[in-house]
Amino acid sequence: MGASGAGKSTFLNVLMGKQSNTGGVTKVNGVAGNIAKYKKIIEYVPEDGIVLPELTFRENIQHSARIQLPCTWSDKEIKNHVDVLINYLQLSHVQDSLVGGTAAPVISGGKRVRIGMELAAAPMALFLDEPTSRLDARAAASIMSTLKALS
Question: DSSP string spanning 20-34?
């Protein structure tokens, strides 16, 4: 969307209500208004999101789903939703592996699990900040392929 320092992260932070804008008007579908009313249908994956290193890939996504989905979802519905996400994000082979911390990751895939954690909320829109930063070319291409399939 722009060169380094162009304000992409700042734009996303304003859009998500994490930072206030200094001017201008926020519009959704051409209608000015407060973006906060859309917060329940929008999810954001920051460049350096947080995962729980002591949990497995599956447990991180499931934990996020339980927190973010409506309380009307049953345990079975959540499990099925998480199963679909894990398959979609191509994490089946590592779903029961510990994520590990950023200083000592157990296995790669942290970007995918962070995306999965936000997709667990079943959002209408997903904003990602630098989804391929610090990834090798193969991993970046894989993430982009997965994201393209979402749209």
Answer: --SSS--EETTEE--
User: Which alpha helices (H) appear in 89-129, and where do they start and end?
Assistant: 110-119
Show me where the domains of the chain are located: 8-150
Closest residue by Cα to residue 45 from 21, 9, 81: 9
Nearest 10 degrees: Cα torsion 13, 16, 18, 21: 70
Q: Is the pTM of this model over 0.70?
A: yes
CATH 3.30.870.10 fits 8-150, yes or no: no
Question: Taking phi first (over 0 means left), then psi (-120 to 50 degrees means alpha), and beta for anything else, what does residue 9 get?
Answer: alpha
Which residue, among 116, 92, 96, has the nearest Cα to 106 in the 3D structure?
96
Local confidence pLDDT in tens for the 151 residues of the chain: 677 778 888 888 887 778 887 788 877 788 887 777 777 788 888 877 788 888 999 999 999 999 999 999 999 999 999 999 999 888 898 899 888 755 555 555 677 888 899 999 999 888 888 888 877 888 888 888 888 887 7
